[in-house]
Amino acid sequence: MQSKNIPLSVLDLIPIGEGFSISEAIANSARLAQAVEAAGFNRYWVAEHHNLKDIASAATSVILSHIGAKTSKIRLGSGGIMLPNHAPLVVAEQFATLDALYPGRIDLGLGRAPGTDMETARALRRDLKTKGTDFPEMLEELQYFFSAESANKRIKAVPGAGSSVPVWLLGSSTFSAQLAAKKGLPMAFAAHFAPDAMQAAINHYRENYQPSQQFPEPYVIVCINALGADTQEQADYLATTELQKFLSLGRGTEQYLPKPVDDMNAIWSPSEAMRVKSQLRESVWGTREVIRDRLTDLVNRSGADEVMVNSWIHDPEARIYSHQVIADAWV
């Protein structure tokens, strides 16, 4: 499979690194967006998370508006908006507003998880009794507010009614794959933190896809963590930030995105190392040659139409350079 036929895109959670302010974290991400636009990446998506010490992407549509003003052509989107946290009418208004500001550049990726802990989910006024089971109905309501038909009703999204903002479904299991196939929507799979169900979800999606007017063919993005450097040693060193991040998640501890370390064995136990490495087994860290080989293998195994990369790199300059290395590897 030719790499030139497979677009590369970026997922960003607006990480707040140790020693950086929130304002600096947002500025660092805006600079990254400009750099990956220049490098030829296809999309720049931002993920909604709440009450996490090292992530500044809670106000996702606000961040996207800021990045849109700093860029000119790269597609912008949510990876994703956690729909059960919001009224579908408000989501339609926000993303149609973004589309009015940056015409033809906006994607709306949707997830059904809270993007936070249960206590914070309650503070978001999320109905926890449904456990996400109402997601299909909320999706239908959102699509209605985007429809031309809704423009003639008393309650309508202004802007929003008649919008052509593409809706994507995001998932880490087969649930969203089933719904995306049924609704005729493109799908993005979160292999960067949940690789177990990747192949089953993609296979079900393609085998059961029902074409829609906007998307006559199935389309799959696979998202992984990726990190590029000039040497394997440097890549492995920088990747210890990602390892520490997932170690902390497993322990239920909070910290700013940490600096890399020389020896992970001084930090984790053998069982923790096994868990983290299994969860991150689709991560790609290395030189241009390693990245090219690993991404090619991923595409061949998964049948991905597009690869999206997320990065947990403490140094903002190294993060920018990493994406340049990845782009160079994938020409």
UniProtKB/TrEMBL annotation:
Protein name as annotated: Luciferase-like monooxygenase
Biological classification of the source: Bacteria, Pseudomonadati, Pseudomonadota, Gammaproteobacteria, Alteromonadales
Residues in Luciferase-like domain copies: 24-305
An MF annotation (GO) of this entry: oxidoreductase activity, acting on paired donors, with incorporation or reduction of molecular oxygen
SUPFAM superfamilies (UniProt xref): Bacterial luciferase-like (SSF51679)
GO cellular component: cytosol
Gene3D superfamilies reported in the protein's UniProt record: Luciferase-like domain
Domain of life: Bacteria
